[in-house]
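Archive record:
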Amino acid sequence: MIKKMGYQWHLRKLMADAGMFQTSELGPLLAERGIHLSREQVYRLVTQPPQRLSMDTLAALCDILACTPNDLIEVTTVGTEVRRIAESGASAPPPPVRRTRIRRPEGL
């Protein structure tokens, strides 16, 4: 069985809890810790769950907000378990049949 996983990103909530209500407040705090992101990158980091996040950025966020990675990222199960074909006992469908024609060179 395959279990589909997802996550929730709580950066905006943790920023609000710390009294930061604008994304522009986070940029200088990250820069103090050696993380240099553009305004657009900081905005996306706050407003959208990141697909990739460096460990340095994660550590800096945890330091700024006095939290742990578990406070920032909540792992969830998305939907139900999906049964794989091989495990269900059913065989995979056969590949499609492709007819070919062999042509012999003329004169043989």
Remarks:
- The two ends are 57 Å apart (CA to CA).
- The helical segments are 11-17, 26-32, 39-47, 55-65, 69-72.
- The mean pLDDT is 87.
- Residues 55-65 form the longest helix (11 residues).
